[in-house]
């Protein structure tokens, strides 16, 4: 980690465009890491990867209202501007794009992205409109920042696949770089939402990754029947009294089609609720 580089904060889309234009003119490679802030080591791994690959790295922090449904946690979403600035400087990020909402959704804004069938499964039915909101804001951010590449985490696997598809479908000249899930020592996937968990919920939350590990173990032992594999996950979750399960599923890692028989490389994904906190996690078999 290096803190020698200065960090510039840009609040306006037009300022961001000027920086991006200057980079292109100077022939500098520009990497981009979009986030909603409350940065943790998962975000840091993405930022460090961008700093490694690019001459200039832009991070954005924007808690995007259009990807939150009614009754979801938009208002209470963790915000830690000072902490975020320290982490961005620590990683050697060059620019933070921190737009005002009126710059992203000005009066009269009306055009949105519809993500199609990749958004219909897994988290889609539980969060209507979520992925359209994500794709719309990411498209806008891509058009403002105009990076050579953007870095996304596999923590939000469905989101990653939807963004990759959007880039292909819209012929966008942006490479999407995938990064592995960063976990706490007990296996819990790092997330800004982990801050909501009570001590008791935090202990239970470690079982979420254990449920995925049990599926992987059973698969390695030779079982490929998805019903049997997923029963392993359900058992771990129920033993931990995690009863509010949105889904546990095995899917094709690219098309996200549901599997009956698992093959190596398939995605095991789950979403559970602990109190008001929704946790998602996944692993590839
Ligand atoms: P968010 O701030 O939650 O919108 O996430 C911004 C980016 O960080 C997304 O590409 C996420 O997939 C990624 N991310 C979040 N948590 C993790 C994690 N634990 N490991 C790796 N990437 C992550």
Structure description:
Helix 5 crosses helix 6 and helix 7 packs antiparallel against helix 8. The chain folds into 2 domains: 172 residues, HUPs (Rossmann fold, 3-Layer(aba) Sandwich); 93 residues, Pantoate--beta-alanine Ligase, Chain: A,domain 2 (2-Layer Sandwich). It is built from 8 helices and 9 strands. The radius of gyration is 19 Å and the shape is globular. The chain is α/β, with parallel strands linked by helices. It has a 6-stranded parallel beta sheet with strand order 1-4-3-2-5-6, sandwiched between helices. The two termini are 32 Å apart. Adenosine monophosphate binds next to helix 2 and strand 5. The site of adenosine monophosphate has 17 residues, from helix 2 and strand 5.
Oligomer: single chain
What molecules are bound to this protein? adenosine monophosphate
The number of E-state strands comes to 9
The number of helices is: 8
CATH topology of the largest domain: Rossmann fold
Number of spatially distinct domains: 2
Which CATH class of the largest domain? Alpha Beta
Note the run of SSEs as H and E.
Answer: EHEHEHEHHEHEHHEEE
Strand order of the largest sheet: 1-4-3-2-5-6
Helix content: 25-40%
Global structural class:
alpha/beta
Q: How are the secondary structure elements laid out?
A:
Layout: E1 8-10, H1 13-25, E2 30-35, H2 41-53, E3 56-61, H3 81-91, E4 95-97, H4 101-104, H5 130-145, E5 149-153, H6 157-169, E6 175-179, H7 199-220, H8 226-239, E7 245-251, E8 267-274, E9 277-284
Parallel strand pairs: 1-4, 2-3, 2-5, 3-4, 5-6
Antiparallel strand pairs: 7-8, 8-9
The structure holds adenosine monophosphate.
Adenosine monophosphate (AMP) binds next to helix 2 and strand 5.
